[in-house]
Amino acid sequence: MTGSPNEPRPEIGSTEDDGSGISRKKLLKAAMVALPAPLLLGATAPMALAGDSTSTDGTANLTSTPQCDDGDDPTPPQMEGPYFKPNSPQRSSMVDGPGTALTLSGYVFGLGCQPISGVLLDFWQADNAGAYDNIGYRFRGHQFTNASGAYQLTAIVPGLYPGRTRHIHVKVQAPGRPILTTQLYFPGEPRNNTDPLFNPALLMTVRNVGTGREASFDFVLNIPQDPGPTPTATTPPPSGTWAAGTAYQVGDQVDYNGVSYRCRIAHTATPGWEPPNAPALWQTV
Ligand SMILES: [Fe+2]
Fold first, then answer.
1. The Chitin-binding type-3 domain covers which part of the protein (predicted)?
2. What's the gap in Å between 130 CA and the centre of ligand 1?
3. Ordered mean pLDDT values, 10 residues apiece, the chain (285 residues)
């Protein structure tokens, strides 16, 4: 492949002006900004959406991530790779070693650009030296989108390891839906041009803030959404020992409508994440 490290990336659906006037995402963004502060993550609200090209230093020519708009494609999947481990801790901060501070935030949408709450995001990445922790859970963690469909991860910029460009792994699953396994990439990385797995549709928007980096990426799951309420999992009338509000640990066993399940990831049970709807959390025994 050709191209210099600083070569501008092709625009993957500009979010600034798509020629069609006000997009649904812009309307959503305006609505989200208008939400009460407690519904927004962190202290930096309003959160930057992927595709925002504003820069604090005015020097970055940022690349848009796929725009969530009517008819847009869902976030493409990528290979899991050899280093995924189940049972990651539930946490939104996984700063487990030295490195350049990285804050990644965004939303999870369905095909109708409606944000989805309660979506499981399980991140894993290399440390500053490009090594994965395959013994413990350094730089591994999962979380759920909040009521606004937003997530925020505090980590470090992952190091490089042979044969790959810089990337972050993630599994994304809405309640009762298939798991999306994919990887996120950094713009301007020299190895983006030579890594056969690299996909520009998975570029985060990244800007320098102080000595750290602030990144954003919005996921679009392959979930049909008509104008109306966000889809929720099909929930049969429950019977058995599973109960919302219970803090389950790895290995805990429950019965749900006559089927036994074993907990795969420690979590607090919530409606929508009943065992039949949550294969990432519950394994059939
Ligand atoms: Fe990797």
1. 239-285
2. 9
3. 33 32 42 38 33 37 47 88 96 98 97 94 98 98 97 98 96 96 98 97 97 97 75 60 88 91 85 80 88
- Looking at the domain covering 24-220, what would its CATH class be? mainly beta
Distance 141 CA to ligand 1 centre (A): 15
Task: Give me 200's structure tokens.
Answer: 């520009």
CA of 35 to the centre of ligand 1 (A): 36
Domain limits of the chain? 24-220, 247-284
CA of 170 to the centre of ligand 1 (A): 10
Residue 177 phi/psi, 5-degree rounding, is -115, 165
Tell how far the Cα of 29 is from the centroid of ligand 1, in angstroms: 31
Task: Note the pLDDT of residue 67.
Answer: 53
CA dist 232 and 235 (Å) reads 8
198 Cα to the center of ligand 1, angstroms? 11
* Calpha distance 265→281 (Å, rounded): 5
Q: Which CATH number fits domain 247-284: 1.10.760.10, 2.10.10.20, 3.30.1360.40, 2.130.10.10?
A: 2.10.10.20
- Supply the pTM of this predicted model: 0.62
What is the model's pLDDT at position 110? Answer: 94
